[in-house]
Amino acid sequence: MAFDTKIAVLLRDDLETWQELNATAFLVSGVTAAYPQLVGEAYGDADGTPYLAMLGQPVMVFQGDAAMLRTAHERAVRRGETIGVFTSDLFRTGNDEDNRAAVAAVRRDDLDLVGIAVHAPRNAVDKILKGAVLHP
């Protein structure tokens, strides 16, 4: 099935596995919160056990170096896309209020980005992430 839009996460390529997973989970939760229409129907098994609904389209995960993240961030902002950001400071905070304060304390061009997420038309996401590679 082809989708008109794409959900993508771009992670810095020097993260530990736990950091990749943590940042991806938080970034995808931001996409889900901003675009609730992307959530499909709830799941259920043959025994009638209910399960949570999930996003109705795939999430593509890419990686790149710090320069690639800065470039993709700049491209997204320049195009007027709303993106999620995850900075290195967020690995040291423990709640949403402190997370938002950590991001708010740093100017856009000085953010130490370790991940970004974007949901936009497919071609826009492809242009924003040009040069990034799919996460292995």
Give a short overview.
The protein has 136 residues and is an alpha+beta fold.
Provide structural commentary.
It comes from Nocardioides endophyticus. Pfam families: DUF2000. This is DUF2000 domain-containing protein. The protein has one domain (5-39, 51-134): Bit1 (3-Layer(aba) Sandwich), CATH 3.40.1490. The model has no long low-confidence stretch (mean pLDDT 96). Helix 2 crosses helix 4. It has 136 residues and is of the alpha+beta class. The strands form two sheets. A five-stranded mixed β-sheet has the order 5-6-1-4-7, sandwiched between helices. Strands 2-3 form a two-stranded antiparallel sheet. It has helices at residues 17-34, 66-79, 96-104, 122-128; strands spanning 5-12, 43-44, 50-51, 59-64, 83-87, 113-121, 133-134. A hairpin with a 5-residue loop joins strand 2 and strand 3 (50-51). The chain is built from four helices and seven strands; from the N terminus they run βαβββαβαβαβ. The protein is globular, with a radius of gyration of 16 Å.
